[in-house]
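Q: I'm writing up a methods section and want to include an example of the input and output format. Could you take the sequence below and give the corresponding predicted structure tokens, formatted cleanly so I can copy it straight into the document?
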Amino acid sequence: MIKQATMTISDIVEQGKGNIVSNMGEDKVMLNVQHNKYYNLGEVGGRIWELIASPVVVADVILTLISEYQVDKEQCEEHVIGFLEHLLKEELIHVREK
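A: Here is the clean output for your methods example:
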């Protein structure tokens, strides 16, 4: 895993292992077994989690979300990168440069 100061849209992201994920209504919730922490990813966060089940470029995640939700590119990019950086800080995802 490459830890970097700022994630970019050209980075490749993927779910980390050791998480139990379940649907709770429209939200996705997750238990990280290694750190014994519980997370509520929410609806959009849950969708991002689904999209990163296998290695994917961040820009592709953003394009998918733009097509599924009524959001502009800049706003989507800002929120997706912020969300992924939080997941990285919590050691829930793997990131590498393209």
